[in-house]
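Recall the central idea of this unit: under ordinary conditions, the amino acid sequence of a chain determines the structure it adopts. In this exercise we apply that idea directly, starting from the sequence alone.
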Amino acid sequence: GVTCEIVGVIAVIGMFFTHAQRGPDVVFDTGSAGGQPGYAWAWIMSGLMAAYVMVGFGSAGELAEETRNPRRVAPRTIRLALSASALGGGLMILGALMAAPSLTDGRLATEGLPYVLTSILSSPWGTVLLIDVSIAVFVCTLAIQTAASRLMFSMARDGRLPASQVLAKVNPRTGTPIAPSVLIGLVCIAVLAVNVGNSAIFATLSSVCIILIYLAYLMVTVPLLVQRLKGWPRTAVGPKFDAEGKKLFSLGIWGVPVNIAAVVYGALMVINLSWPRAEIFNPTGEYPILQWAAPITVALVVGLGVACFPRGRATPNPVTIGA
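Accordingly, the structure predicted from this sequence is:
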């Protein structure tokens, strides 16, 4: 799957640049845009694309935890995943703008990259590339399901979910937890069933899911910032060296500024993505409530978290971390 993805990206970028109809300066062409409200708002809107794309690297980190030296391999894997996505995605967008038959007929905005591919390639080769992309997407789906299954099993093993005994049970023959995989698959099928006859709801669900990911990031960066302000990692008790005997990486004096930037960025992305834009959450205009799906979801999730937080008592079922 990863091989198909890499080969497909390289092939698509190569096709775009070899069939270019305009130069790379197209990215500086504003078209018929006016002077208001200015480039600041355009820059904020462009952040939506990165917000939807530069996520999911947690899965790379989780899988890297199974290596011999996860303290070093996991961060390197995450950096590599983000760098490859930025480089490949940026070149693909630039190539599509250069190779698109037209930038003003509206087809690029509505049909996206498949429009450019089928325009510059003969139909069979364009179809082959789309099949390659489909395989890559399918494998990515399996990777996400694997990560979600691992997460559900881990939480059930620690008694943090309803029906934890069932979800944490490991099949003695295969050595894998079957219940989490089946449950997640059924939930995904149910979500896809909502899309039947109403693609607007599916688009809304996709947008809300991205917001929930940023909320999950904030659940890491905010507590970490609190601990840093209390003196961590200077006051931390634990190993100072990794499995190879090398000193653990530390941001040093940059720890607090970087952590603050992470919290601010995460909060701004939640606000930006949750803003009730009809073009994103209710493009057809059939269900006005969908426009407010993101703010409602954020409020419900935060409220549920506050209600379930164990205030004034010991954390139930504490997790014991091995050395």
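The longest helix spans residues 123-157.
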